[in-house]
Amino acid sequence: MKYDYIIVGAGFAGSVMAERIASQLNKKVLLVEKRNHIAGNAYDEYDENGILVHLYGPHLFHTNSEKVFQYLSQFTEWNFYEHRVLAKLGDEYYPIPINKTTINRLYKMNLTTDDEVRKFLDSKKENRHPINNSEDVIVNQVGYDLFEKFFKHYTKKQWNLEPKELSPLVCGRIPVRFDTDDRYFSDKYQFMPKHGYTKMFKKMLNHKNIEVRLNTDFFDVMTEEKFDFLIYSGPIDQFFNYEFGKLPYRSMKFEFQNYKLDKYQPAAQINHVDMIAKITRTVEYRQITKQKADSTTVSIEYPQIDGEPFYPIPTEEHRELYLNYKAKSKELKDVLFCGRLAEYQYYNMDQVVANTLKMFDEHISNG
After folding, report:
1. Cis (ω within 30 of 0) for the bond into 95?
2. Can you spell out the DSSP letters for 271-294?
């Protein structure tokens, strides 16, 4: 059989692109995925205790884009959910992002107005310009003490690099608040798919023009299949056989533990920010899904070098290496590179969807 398109990878980028091509252009798509499931790292399933868990760590949907929200709403109903995170420092818990409560609790103060918090942080922050790295971003906002307590060790564990070695974008994603708003995100739309991400992806890919082939490595079948155009959402360096060298990624190892409790920890997500703990996060999924059950499951995260590529490591050196591959990709007229791994970019889920819809409009639907 001849396909109009082969798409590599059944995560957000590949699945959204497959759905658009099948439904809008009425073209035949073969979607190949090397894992045994769709939905990429957003994959969720019910564990042996009947608790819906995210196998690759928590995926919290949030966006300010009405277009992205309306697009995904075709494939799922939603449960309203605002994510809250506590940082565990020693034996104490503090709201993250840093806000008025964090500062009052940490420094045993009683700041009452937003302006008092702003003035306090102004007295602590260091004027660092230009902003060259992630340490600069935080110290420029809140000073070195808060940076060291809440960001330095956590970031080092997560990336195996000092914050000053990382792009400003890494820590620049986290706001600082002067009020008591303890929501992790402040986006307009904050929801979770009512029946989980995997069900949402199944509905997205349920189209007569889409064939999904799991447990299939594209590089094993690329010479066997006939197709007109390739959309690739895998690692771009692998596509070019690591010609310029391997692009580094951070991976994660997850341990899941079930407890015969109604609630295990004081917030859905606990960030372990001191240097003593080897783990980065513990996440309790029932607090996210609002599922009713007689036990609760928690994931424990250990960052590591080896394993599935999760996070592109954003340094200037790695960016330059990626740009070599990007330049080479521009020479190919019948291949489009799309998604976090193919673009070596640390996208949120909504950013992947928005970017994929844009790429479809600009490169696919217009020929």
Report:
1. no
2. EE-SSS-S--EEEETHHHH----S
Residues in contact with 325: Cβ distance below 8 Å, sequence separation at least 6, in sequence order: 236, 237, 239, 240, 243, 244, 247, 344
Instruction: Return the CATH fold of 2-81+193-248+312-364.
Output: Rossmann fold (3.40.50)
Q: What averages of pLDDT result for each successive group of 10 residues across the chain (367 residues)?
A: 96 98 98 98 98 97 98 98 98 97 98 98 95 95 97 96 93 91 97 98 98 96 92 97 96 97 98 94 98 97 92 92 98 96 95 98 88
Q: Please count the residues of the chain.
A: 367
Residues 6+ apart with CB under 8 A from 358: none
Please state, in angstroms and rounded to a whole number, the distance separating the CA atoms of residues 121 and 176. Answer: 10
Cβ proximity of 281 and 269 under 8 Å? yes
Residue in 90, 72, 299 with CA at minimum distance from that of residue 194: 72
Q: Which of 12, 24, 13 minimizes the C-alpha distance to 4?
A: 24
CA distances from 230 to 57, 81, 165, 239, 362 (A): 29, 37, 35, 12, 16
Look at residue 258 and give its three-state secondary structure.
Answer: strand
Over residues 144-202, the pLDDT tens digits come to: 999 999 999 999 999 999 999 999 988 888 899 999 999 999 999 999 999 999 999 99
